[in-house]
Amino acid sequence: MKKNLLISVKMTGVMIILCAGLYPLLIAGIGKATPGGGKGKTVSVNGKVVGYENVGQKFSEDKYFWGRPSAVDYNAAGSAGSNKGPSNPDYLQIVKDRIDSFLVHNPGVTREEIPADLVTASGSGLDPHISPASAYVQVKRIASIRNLPEEKVRALAEQYVEKTILGPPVVNVLKLNIGLDNLK
Q: What are the domain boundaries of the chain?
């Protein structure tokens, strides 16, 4: 009994040192070696930081491309999904409201044309990307508001399509909107 207790106490001490000391230091060191030094990769315009490359932001003005909705209102300190299942009546109402709002702001688009990622939040609530289809469905609205040819706005959206290693292509909404503001 005494022998087992001593071994347990020693193992607890070793695991505390490993899990509460060395592992966090290792992860912090890896973070410091990443772009942005573990604080995230910032995006700057004219020397001013306007956002983070891998954290979604809220764009609600019609002159910009909209990103995925966020269950946490894009608060990076509180990353989370909604935890409501696809059959939850509250969740279904939220999605219906998002669809209705999108249709009001995008006349000429039908319900069937709205990609799911424009009306459903990501698991983290901070996804900075949309699908290319989500960008293309917004082209008409943006071109109309900015008095630009639709072909020019669509070409810009196509320019910002990023290929991913394991998933489908994506478009970073912040970068696309910066490109849109720089469009002449």
A: 1-38, 40-182
